[in-house]
Design goal:
heterodimer, A: mainly alpha, two-stranded antiparallel sheet, about 80% helix, B: mainly alpha, two-stranded antiparallel ribbon, about 70% helix
């Protein structure tokens, strides 16, 4: 029993060590690709807290990504704050904002919550575009990264690789901690039956608002790291809806509501999309679309759930899997 | 004063257009609880069908609605029957992802086939305007599109409430299990519903092509407008999408007069968020659809 409890943490530490070891084996282009995949591991694990465990489909998650990114850049440019202070500032700003909007919006359910959060993200982007004095507006804003003016010198490809690796490990660690504590049970109870969870004494409003805020804070921190990596940031890129969709695709295909699912999903989908982008200059998105369709039809419950059931029942047929979910 | 009046007229016409784009989206959401992220792509596809019909045989875009609707009906029926029906019993995100994949497929297919250039279908009358007293102009093309929007919404309402097919669709939407026990072929009815919605999207696309420019990149925008219009108007009522579209159109055009910069885009979403927080079933929607938690 004790062994089974320690095993996942051991696997996690091994994966982290493998991440450190992998770095020396990559050339620059590959290093950037793996950094991007690591960033999505963190984003997917953060989305999983609200979307997977709690079951609230936040389709405005990229809003927190962009908000964190812009919060970090604004304090670095205007207040000359070091990046290492801007990172926690970004997390706190995104978390507090999510708590403030989450309080009313988390009363909505299902698709309605999804649309409302989508609206919040779109609204944030418009606000950023219309405050050119602070954010540079649609023309973008640049962080000074070289010379004596720079609050923090640019970290280089090696530095950002390590930063995204540590951030991803941190987010996955937080998710694993939450999953193992009563807070995680409360969130899963809300997912399964919110009224029943309330009747059993879970303060559902506080629990889901906290989950939303923590998820947003982690997303905001990753957004800050991304903004610093990009040096010049634009609202269109930092509030790109496709980033939200990628997070959701990764979590759902990997297995939502599990610790390992988003990590596996992000590595699989992230690598696939990067590989397609490099090998099919024309039409790589077309192939990605076809792959997503195929994957959701064959594995509608996500890879981790499928693997667990398949191993337990010795039924590995994907066709049988399709038969279970069709009309 | 005249500027505000002009903005109101324009917003009303634009709103009917949004309603026409959104009505199929709202139907699919209401009946099958599927948020079809490929809806905007279907609209653009309809515009291209009408564009090709115009290029090949010189068909007027408003007559081109017919081939667009027929082609999209066939596509929609097949998509629901052979793809979406396979995952109907899976968790809710799955249909979102499936339709998102479909959107990527259609949009990028269109980019490969037609490039990403902006196009329009030229007509002799679309650019002309009726001039009302007070120098308020009513563009003829948009007026025609608005009339089509109202006509199609009324026709859809008749289909849903007065025919056996419509009753079967409504019954399946309310309780699929019970409907199947009554002998309604749910697989066929779902495919039919999706086909009708896609046909409406195709017709809307042809109308869009007749009065403004379009490109594959517009697909996401059309889906977003449909989302907002469907939620504003409310589900479970065919007139809901049209009503929501009109509210959205008015908010955008009047907001555009009063607000600086592009803040008007944020206003549409602010209205949406407020409506959701106060009246989740929308302006004309039925509470049944808002209270429904995904199964």
């Amino acid at each position: 029993m004790r062994f089974r409890r320690i095993l996942p943490w051991g696997v996690g530490l091994l994966a982290l060590a493998a991440g450190f070891a992998l770095q020396s084996q990559l050339y620059t282009g590959q290093e950037r690709t793996v950094s991007t995949v690591l960033m999505f591991v963190g984003l997917a694990a953060a989305w999983n807290l609200i979307g997977g465990y709690t079951g609230y489909a936040s389709f405005g998650q990229v809003g927190f990504f962009g908000l964190g990114g812009y919060a970090a850049v604004v304090v670095m440019v205007h207040a000359r704050l070091s990046f290492w202070l801007a990172l926690p500032v970004a997390a706190v700003v995104a978390g507090l904002f999510a708590a403030a909007v989450g309080w009313p919006l988390l009363r909505l359910r299902g698709h309605y919550f999804a649309v409302a959060t989508l609206g919040v993200a779109e609204g944030l982007r418009e606000v950023v575009i219309n405050l050119p004095g602070v954010t540079g507006g649609g023309a973008g804003i640049t962080i000074p990264t070289v010379g004596p003016d720079a609050p923090t010198p640019w970290l280089g490809n090696d530095g950002f690789y390590l930063l995204f690796l540590v951030l991803a490990a941190g987010v996955v660690g937080v998710a694993a901690l939450i999953a193992a504590t009563p807070a995680g049970y409360a969130l899963r109870a809300i997912h399964q039956d919110e009224e029943a969870a309330g009747a059993m004494g879970v303060n559902t409003t506080v629990a889901k608002t906290l989950a939303f805020a923590v998820s947003a804070a982690l997303t905001g921190a990753i957004g800050a790291a991304y903004a610093f990596q990009q040096v010049t940031i634009f609202p269109e890129r930092l509030f790109d809806v496709d980033i939200t969709v990628l997070m959701v695709v990764m979590v759902v295909l990997g297995g939502s509501g599990t610790v390992a699912g988003p990590v596996l999903g992000a590595i699989a989908v992230g690598s696939a999309s990067e590989w397609l982008r490099q090998h099919f200059t024309v039409g790589h998105t077309l192939v990605l679309g076809a792959l997503i369709i195929l994957a959701v039809i064959l594995l509608p419950q996500g890879f981790t759930s499928y693997a667990r059931d398949a191993v337990a029942s010795h039924r590995y047929s994907l066709l049988e899997n399709v038969r279970r979910y069709r009309l | 004063m005249s500027a505000i009046l002009q903005a109101t007229v324009y917003g009303l016409l634009q709103g009917c257009m949004f309603g026409l784009v959104a009505v199929g989206f709202s139907l699919v959401w209401g009946v099958m609880n599927i948020v079809n992220l490929a809806h905007g792509a279907f609209v653009v596809l309809g515009a291209y069908v009408a564009y090709e019909a115009h290029r090949l045989v010189g068909l007027d875009p408003f007559l081109g609605m017919l081939p667009a609707a027929v082609a999209l009906f066939a596509l929609g029926y097949a998509v629901q029957r052979y793809l979406i029906n396979l995952v109907v019993n899976a968790p809710i995100f799955i249909t979102l992802l499936l339709t998102f994949g479909l959107q990527l497929l259609v949009v990028n297919g269109l980019v490969l086939g037609f490039t990403a250039d902006y196009r329009s279908i030229p007509t002799a009358y679309a650019a002309r305007s009726l001039v009302l007293p007070g120098d308020v102009r009513v563009p003829l093309g948009r007026l025609l599109a608005a009339l089509v929007a109202v006509g199609l919404t009324v026709a859809l309402g008749y289909l849903m409430r007065r025919t056996r097919t419509g009753m079967a669709i409504l019954a399946t939407g309310m309780d699929r299990g019970a409907a199947r026990l009554m002998g309604i072929p749910a697989r066929h009815v779902y495919a039919l519903t999706f086909g009708i919605a896609a046909a409406l999207a195709g017709a809307a696309g042809a109308a869009v092509g007749g009065v403004s420019t379009f490109s594959p990149a517009d697909a996401g925008r059309f889906t977003l407008f449909s989302f907002v219009a469907a939620v504003l108007g409310g589900l479970g009522n065919t007139a809901g999408a049209l009503l929501g579209g009109i509210v959205l159109g008015l908010a955008e055009s009047i907001g555009g007069q009063l607000l600086p910069g592009t803040l008007v885009n944020a206003v549409a979403f602010a209205v949406l968020v407020v409506v959701l927080a106060i009246r989740p079933q929308g302006i004309a929607g039925r509470a049944f659809y808002a209270a429904r938690v995904e199964v």
